[in-house]
Design a protein that fits this description.
This protein has twelve helices and 14 strands. The protein has about 425 residues and is α+β, with helices and mostly antiparallel strands. Strand 8 and strand 9 form a beta hairpin.
């Protein structure tokens, strides 16, 4: 059994070390992070599902708003827990969680009391969205230089964080297997979503992001949100869905072709599975992520040529931008407390940006790959009419098999996504041990 307390102890020791360095580099003596305040919808009395301030979650997995964490170099972190007495909403007792021994914990019953206990520490920075209270406490609000350094330090994951992501992967894999079975039994998008939720054992707002459950042509809408109840017996399922444990997310996508699917598209799906695994095998420390993304375009261009969709060699197809309408997004993103985790475009801890390569200007991740990073690898191949339309009449139109493209367009698209931990010698796939296919 995993000793979470030991893993968390090492995680907090690393947080204290990196926070002390960041504070010294930016001229602060202390850091105050709040878990945040609830967002209430405009002109309404209903609140959005609460998400804690990510930097608070990086230190402490305690749920709920208005908690305050005080970090000072050389001292144990101080945690002021907001624990109101309330009959409208259930207030769970703290109990004895594995992480509690790492903090000096105080409990208060009101938000006002929490900030009164905090006082007005000198030379202190604040991160969070309770800015009016923080300003009244004479804290410097969300300083960019400090935040950039803390973002940078979130990129390399501790053993505790990897454990959380792996546990989330176990849950998400159960959901994916149930969703696949429902699809093959002829279920609708809504029924497939229900099968996923039931297998994971959560309600919708507990997911790290809204699931994408797309049958047929809807798989070509990259962030398809709807769940149609009246479309069944689909030819293709594209499902992008995750789970989270202690605030850390798994983010997994699978594409499944039904037995009655067009065999040419089913062959493309099988080719994409092999292609994605090949890209995972290429991951190693020291590789610029832009080069990795470019490798993905070359692989997809080769697959398109192999199946007769493009009539160009891979290097030429990528150089001319012919692969881009089929693969219009990045090859992946950092993963952690946030599904699209921070600092993907930072070139240095101080927040200096690393611009994307000119060939791939919208790339979300431009870092150099390093041991300890966790990111997704998610190549895609889609038939998106609006992106292909300009190529039907330009100077490259003869390089496409438009008849085949039109016949495959009703099948939508393909995306295969795993979560990888970069190691000193290569990588460890966190997804495949739990979801092999």
């Amino acid at each position: 059994m995993t000793d979470l307390a030991s893993l968390f102890h090492a995680h907090i020791a690393e947080r204290q070390r990196t926070a002390a360095e960041a504070l010294a580099e930016t001229g602060f003596d202390a850091l105050v992070i709040s878990s945040g305040q609830v967002y209430t919808h405009f002109a309404d009395d209903q609140d959005a599902p609460f998400h804690p301030t990510p930097h608070f979650a990086h230190w402490c997995p305690m749920a709920g708003p208005h908690h305050l964490l005080v970090v000072r170099p050389g001292q144990r972190p101080r945690l002021i827990r907001y624990a109101p007495e309330d009959f409208w909403y259930e207030q769970l007792p703290l109990g004895s969680p594995f992480w509690a021994s790492e903090f000096d914990i105080e409990e208060v019953g009101t938000v006002e009391e929490a900030w009164k206990r905090l006082g007005s520490p000198e030379q202190a920075a604040y991160i969070g969205n309770e800015t009016e209270r923080a300003e009244a406490a004479n804290l410097e609000l969300n300083p960019a230089g400090l935040t950039a350094r803390l973002d940078w330090n979130r990129t390399n994951k501790s053993a505790y964080e990897v454990q959380c992501i792996e546990e989330a992967t176990v849950l998400a894999s159960r959901g994916h297997l149930a969703a696949r079975a429902a699809f093959l039994a002829g279920a609708s998008e809504l029924e497939i979503h229900y099968a996923y939720i039931q297998a994971v054992g959560i309600v919708d707002h507990e997911m790290p992001y809204g699931s994408i459950v797309a049958l047929n042509e809807k798989g070509a809408i990259l962030h398809y949100e709807h769940k149609r109840a009246n479309v069944r017996n689909g030819d293709v399922l594209l499902i992008d869905a995750g789970a989270q444990i202690r605030g850390y997310a798994a983010d997994i996508t699978r594409t499944v072709a039904a037995p009655h699917c067009d065999s040419r598209f089913a062959d493309l799906v099988a080719g994409m599975v092999k292609l994605e695994l090949g890209l995972c095998d290429a991951v190693k420390p020291g590789m610029p992520y832009g080069d990795f993304h470019h490798l993905g375009h070359l692989a997809i261009a080769a697959l398109l040529k192999e199946h007769g969709i493009l009539k160009a060699d891979p290097e030429e197809a990528v150089e001319l931008g012919l692969s881009r309408p089929f693969f219009p997004h990045g090859l992946g993103h950092h993963l952690g407390i946030q599904v699209h985790d921070v600092a993907g475009r930072q070139g240095a801890p101080d927040g200096t940006l690393a611009p994307p390569p000119p060939q791939h200007p919208t790339l979300r991740t431009t870092r150099t790959i390093e041991a300890g990073q966790v990111f997704t690898v998610e190549p895609g191949l889609y038939f998106i009419p609006m992106l292909l339309r300009p190529f039907r009449e330009n100077e490259h139109k003869a390089r496409f098999d438009w008849k085949l493209i039109d016949e495959l367009t009703p099948c939508g698209g393909i995306r295969i996504e795993d979560n990888l931990l970069v190691t000193s010698s290569g990588h460890r796939n966190l997804t495949r041990p739990h979801l092999p296919n």
